[in-house]
Design brief:
The chain is α+β, with helices and mostly antiparallel strands and 131 residues long. The protein has a single domain (7-127), classed as Aspartate Aminotransferase, domain 1 (Alpha-Beta Complex). It contains three helices and six strands. The chain has helices spanning 7-12, 16-32, 108-127, and strands spanning 37-41, 44-49, 52-58, 66-70, 94-95, 101-105. The chain has a six-stranded antiparallel beta sheet. α2 packs parallel to α3 (108-127). The N and C termini lie far apart (33 Å).
Length: 131
Amino acid sequence: MAKYRTLDEFFADQEPGTLEQVMLVREAIFEAEPSLHENLKWNSPNYVHDGEDRITFNLMNKERKVKLLIHMGAKRKEDRTDKPVLEQDEGIVSWQSNIRGIVSFDDMSDIQSKRAALVKLLRRWLAIPAA
């Protein structure tokens, strides 16, 4: 597995089909909040809101799917037994804890069908303070 130093390196190394999916999800992320800062975290694109990591791509998974991890950064305590802090999740989140969930996409058509729900979800998510 390559260790990317820049976002450009990451994007250049993706297979065309994967890159197309990533770019479509990325457009939805910036539609939800244009002021997000994009960087690399865990060797994937990551999005920072108000100084906290809040959204990170996960492409290194056994299903080989495009996934988004929504999370609250490192400061807020995570509770795997508590209910999610976001109640209206558009039905597209698999919650791992109260402050961490995964949105998975099967393919381009799945991304397209979930796009509006994803934008709503991310706007709600980013409205919750991370700390």
